Amino acid sequence: MVKFEEANTRLFKNIYVCRKCKSKIRAHSMKVIRGQAVCRKCASKALRPKKKK
User: Fold this and answer.
1) How many CB atoms lie within 10 A of CB 39?
2) Per-residue pLDDT at 3 exceeds 90
3) Measured between alpha carbons, how far is 46 from 52 in angstroms, rounded to an integer?
4) Engineered SS bond to 31: which of 20, 24, 36, 42, CB 3.0-4.6 Å?
5) What is the mean pLDDT of the chain?
6) What is the tens place of the pLDDT at every residue in 5-15?
């Protein structure tokens, strides 16, 4: 899908989507695993990685 590694990094690295309100959040993966990253809109800790369609 993405031809350039730089574009792939910019679009998908450290970007997570809230499972409740579907807002995008840029956070480090270790913070998401530990549960320290929260959604700005709904304060949920349920995050998933952005899908690479």
Assistant:
1) 21
2) no
3) 19
4) 36
5) 93
6) 999 899 999 99
41: Cα separation from own chain's centroid: 14
Strand 47-49 vs strand 24-26: parallel, antiparallel, or unpaired? unpaired
CA–CA separation, 38 and 20 (whole Å): 11
The pLDDT value given to residue 2: 63
Q: To 5 degrees, how large is the angle CA 14–CA 19–CA 25?
A: 30
Residue 53, pLDDT score: 79
Whether the CB-CB separation of 51 and 22 falls below 8 Å is answered with no
State phi, psi for 4 to the nearest 5 degrees: -110, 135
Query: Are 15 and 24 spatial neighbours (Cβ–Cβ below 8 Å)?
Result: yes
